[in-house]
Amino acid sequence: MKIQKSLKLAVNILLHSKLRSWLTIIGIVIGVAAIVAIVSIGEGAQVSVNERLGGLGADIVTISPGFQRATGNFRGFGDGEGSATTSQKNLTNKDIQTIKSVNNILFVNGIVSGRADTSYLAETASLSIQGVDPLAWSNMITTGLSSGRYLNSGDTNMIVIGSRVAASTFKQSLVVNRDITIEGKPFKIVGILESSGNGDNIIYMPIDQARDILNKSTDYYDSISFKVADASQVDAVVNETTQRLMISRQLLGKTQDFSITSAQAIQEQIQSVTQTFTIFLGAIAAVSLLVGAVGIANTMFTSVLEKTKEIGIMKAIGAKNRDIMAIFMLNSALVGFAGGVMGILLGIGISTLLPQFLGGIAGLGRGGITTVVPLSLVIEAILISVLLGMLAGAIPAYRASKLKPVDALRYE
Amino acid sequence: MKKSLIKLENVWKIYLMGDVEVAALKDVSMSIDEGEFVAIVGSSGSGKSTLMHLVGCLDLPTKGSVFLDNKDISSMRESELAQIRGKKIGFIFQQFNLIPNLTALENVMLPLEFQNMDGGEAKEKAMALLNVVGLDDRMHHRPSQLSGGQQQRVAIARALSTNPDVILADEPTGNLDSGSGSEVLSLLEKLWKQEGKTLIMVTHDLNLARRSQRQIHLKDGKLWSVKT
Ligand SMILES: Nc1ncnc2c1ncn2[C@@H]1O[C@H](COP(=O)(O)OP(=O)(O)O)[C@@H](O)[C@H]1O
Ligand SMILES: [Mg+2]
């Protein structure tokens, strides 16, 4: 019998099957849905992590006072307002010198940050200020300029502003060469950054002026960031820097009183959060698919039993064993296919809802993770379910094909 | 001189019911010629269906040999037997045995599809046959939407579809009222006469049996008498 005729008969059996046999599809549906959710959230998380950290670069390391476990550290990451915890010793010029003495560090940027009242055309807003080393900062920043230039060493009363500061702080958008007033002092905007999801709300200025405005002493830094010559050396450089700081800060034998975090480490942490979900959903998927396969096998056994007489009739009118085998295998494959299609739809549904929770957990904020459902995933999911259906149906179909014609015919 | 198409030599069929052996056929020998119309009679349980199943290659004898076209069916593989069932033999059953979820047309096409016939050709042929049995207006009905007589006529069309040499009818009128029963028999007789097919029919009804050329009487699995 030709394959398309066998398929037609298999479709006929499927369409006339009882509700009960449709229910056994649920296992496959849930399994496939879980797989689709895992992959699409995983891919989506990857995309948003890269987007968020892309602005920082994997070769950038940040040091802040107070020892925090890294998990708490990336919540406010990128705000520039170092989330200082315990009243630990500040970061000082001595620390900058120590860091500069480490090999393979290209630039070191000492940062002070805080909020300051900013006014423009009779409007006032409290905005985040970052005082930076103009040269180091200009070389380390990966966010592009939408207009103007970065800061130069020797700039005074000049600022570069984030895209949101420019676009949505004041009624009128800010543009290059406009003057704004910060804590009563005039500043000229020399550059506007592109939107990057990182530092869009910040005003960057030379550190001396920031100290002045924020009332911070000349030997004080809220954080220090540095750029490693090569991303592959980040771990080694972090270790070396940590050791030297421990010595220079006279902390040998005591607990560390500063935090040192690389973008790489943050990335790894976010990945570990999504990995937890992947493992969790993966377990659900595996169990569901197994249950689904057993369910299909069970339904197929029942179906073969119910159709014993028909199998006998078909054999009496010329069906070969392999015809019967093909019909039932295809039937089972179709059950898998149907389960796969429903599973994909459910999975897409889940993957659009779950990030709402997941985003909060990962500290990325609501909508922080978008999901991606690649076409290859859809095809793979369907393949898996069809294959599973055929696997589950193999033994029942084989049994059906081996039924003796007379016995099958006499079956009531 | 007519050619012998079916030959049974000392055929035994023994079923094992637990530890008890039940002999459904006991040392039966007979020969049926090409183009012959034979009726097989006997009371219930006398082994008539068992005999039909052997002749129709649905089962193999426990002892003895069944020859079809001088070939011993016990020596054939299952796929060869399936081939013979599909091409050379047309079955008609007391219970009609149509596939319930297929239409009359699809049921008649099915044996042709098992023979890999092209879809369009199979359809044409099946339609012509349904026309012959007078059901051209019932092609797209399912078995449950047809009367017993109509279902049996669909079954006859199905049995004829691959143009087999032998028609095996196991109590074809057993589930029908006398009116549609004689209609079905007339149809079978007509096919036998016009198409020159070999017709073997099991029946209870001695009036129907009388219309055959030869009556073979089974009793308790043994060949009891042959009446011409
Ligand atoms: N599969 C089987 N297992 C055991 N006994 C069987 C089987 N098939 C038929 N028989 C027995 O063989 C005998 C003949 O059956 P059958 O050929 O169906 O008779 P008939 O068709 O003449 O009524 C009966 O006694 C029946 O019970
Ligand atoms: Mg019988």
Question: Can you describe this structure?
Answer:
The complex is a heterodimer of chains A (412) and B (228). The radius of gyration of chain A is 32 Å and the shape is elongated. Chain A is built from 14 helices and 10 strands. Chain A has 412 residues and is of the alpha+beta class. Chain A folds into 2 domains: 3-53 and 268-410, no CATH class; 111-220, no CATH class. Chain B is of the alpha/beta class and 228 residues long. Chain B has one domain (34-61, 74-227): Rossmann fold (3-Layer(aba) Sandwich). The longest helix of chain B has 18 residues, at 178-195. The model of chain B has no long low-confidence stretch (mean pLDDT 93). The structure holds adenosine-5'-diphosphate and magnesium ion.
Largest sheet of chain B: 6 strands, mixed
* Annotation field: number of helices of chain A: 14
Number of helices in the DSSP assignment of chain B:
7
Bound molecules: adenosine-5'-diphosphate, magnesium ion
Short description:
The complex is a heterodimer of chains A (412) and B (228). Chain A has helices spanning 3-15, 19-23, 26-54, 70-73, 93-100, 134-140, 163-168, 207-214, 234-248, 263-306, 308-316, 321-361, 375-402, 405-410, and strands at residues 60-65, 105-120, 123-132, 145-148, 158-161, 179-182, 185-193, 202-206, 223-228, 258-262.
Give descriptors for this structure.
heterodimer, A: 412 residues, alpha+beta, B: 228 residues, alpha/beta, four-stranded antiparallel β-sheet, 34% helix, binds adenosine-5'-diphosphate, binds magnesium ion
Q: What topology does this entry show?
A:
The complex is a heterodimer of chains A (412) and B (228).
Chain A: H1 3-15, H2 19-23, H3 26-54, E1 60-65, H4 70-73, H5 93-100, E2 105-120, E3 123-132, H6 134-140, E4 145-148, E5 158-161, H7 163-168, E6 179-182, E7 185-193, E8 202-206, H8 207-214, E9 223-228, H9 234-248, E10 258-262, H10 263-306, H11 308-316, H12 321-361, H13 375-402, H14 405-410
Helix pairs in contact in A: 1-12, 3-10, 3-12, 3-13, 5-9, 10-12, 10-13, 12-13
Chain B: E1 4-17, E2 20-33, E3 37-41, H1 48-55, E4 63-68, E5 71-72, H2 78-87, E6 89-92, H3 104-114, H4 119-132, H5 148-160, E7 166-170, H6 178-195, E8 198-202, H7 206-209, E9 214-219, E10 222-227
Parallel strand pairs in B: 3-8, 3-9, 6-7, 7-8
Antiparallel strand pairs in B: 1-2, 1-4, 4-5, 9-10
Helix pairs in contact in B: 3-4, 3-5, 4-5, 5-6
Bound molecules: adenosine-5'-diphosphate and magnesium ion.
